[in-house]
Amino acid sequence: MTAACAAASGRLARSAALLLGCAGIVLGTFAALGCGESGGATGSPGSTATAVEDQACSVCGMLVRDQPAPRAQVVHHDGTKAFTCSLGDLLVHLSAPSPHGRADDVWVEVMEPTESPAERATHAHRWIAASDAFYVVGVERRGIMGPPVLAYAEHSHAESVAGMHDGARVIDLAGLEAWWATRQR
Fold it and tell me: How far apart (Å, rounded) are the C-alpha atoms in residues 130 and 60?
């Protein structure tokens, strides 16, 4: 084997390892979100979401309370809480390795049924377990970090919003995981 062939073979092996590693991170993210173990996206018994105060987004560093809902928070296995200023940033946060261990609880803020996605409502919203929310993707929304994802507590509210936007659709947590995975390709 020539030196050039050996070098190319080595680069190919490193590229394959990197791709497999990225695939593992994405799959691990979604295992953490909906793994069905105690905690996960379902909310552990006795675990509650924390009101947003002066927390910075774990992904972009922006002040979470100054960004429009829905926002998110994660409780890692070691008890560390991480906040994100958008659900797009939540997906980024969960796809990155964490020194704090797996995500035991994931909470999302839900939009109010009468709230327009075009509004930049930064007031406190209700928090629910990520697994209980209905997500709307395909809505254009300006001024948020990451891809626009809306969350609603009721399927009918999510359907109503999706019906007002061409190309928007309602998905559950498993659908959100699949949607995110396709965006990472």
Answer: 21
Task: In whole angstroms, give the CA distance from residue 147 to residue 169.
Answer: 14
Looking at residues 35-50, what average pLDDT do you find? 56
Per residue in 104-150, pLDDT tens?
Answer: 999 999 999 999 888 888 999 999 999 999 999 999 888 776 789 99
Looking at the DSSP bridge assignments, the partners of residue 63 are: 56
Contacts of residues 27-32 at CB distance under 8 Å and 24 or more positions apart, as own/partner, are 29/91, 29/94, 29/95, 29/177, 29/180, 30/177, 30/180, 30/181, 32/94, 32/102, 32/103
Helix (H) or strand (E) holding 171, with range, is strand 169-171
Amino acid (1-letter code) at residue 2:
T
**Could you list the residue range(s) of the whole structural domain that residue 19 is in?**
3-183
Q: What is the mean pLDDT of residues 80-86?
A: 94
Inter-axis angle of helices 173-183 and 87-95, nearest 10: 70
Q: How many domains does the chain have?
A: 1
